[in-house]
Amino acid sequence: MKKIRPIVLDLRDVAVRNVLEGRQVETRLPLKTKLPEWTKRVDLLFDVKSPEGPDHWLSIGVRPNGQEYAEEIEELPPYRSGQVLYVRETWGKTEDGAKLYRADQGPGDVEKWHSPITMPPDLARIYLRVKSVSLQGLGSMCDQDCRENGARWVDFGLDLWGEPCDGWTMDPDHHTLGYDHCYSSPQLAYAQAWDAAQPPATRYARSPWVWVVRFEKIDKPVSKKKESK
Q: What are the phi and psi torsion angles at 72 (to 5°)?
């Protein structure tokens, strides 16, 4: 069995809950490479001689002097179609050593919540198979993109003036949130959730370039050794 690689989802706990509910089928990861500010689009050129080899991504745009340019991006996609991933989550331990996931809203006796990066592989409970990887400016997301990341229309009850309040949210626990978490569009709901989970340098309003990883949730892979027993 091929090596299973880890992934941390874009909206952290919110994304974990959405995937568990079957509402999220893609995630977005910021590029590590900073592209020129005048980049207009990113094109993928396939290596005809070696279809399975590295892809070539070009940053294309127009410089301030009006000159067009195309520069190859050295950063390779973080994942490839067909790869199996396990999701790293924020986790912690209770006083008696039981391990919990913060996305489950566990009891308050957790000693400390640990970063997803430190989650041991044997704690994984979510497995994904990559269907495709592409590049996108975050600000170009459409409503359908946001819905495929878990955005939903819900009833938030009444606002301070006693008026019915419904709108868009990314959080499955919307029933515990106030009406101030109610947004007029899927994009606004996603932007709020993205900014809450990501560092300031990649705020939604800046429309950073991101890898769009589309996936399907699968059962935990069984190694061939176990199957043969």
A: -75, 135
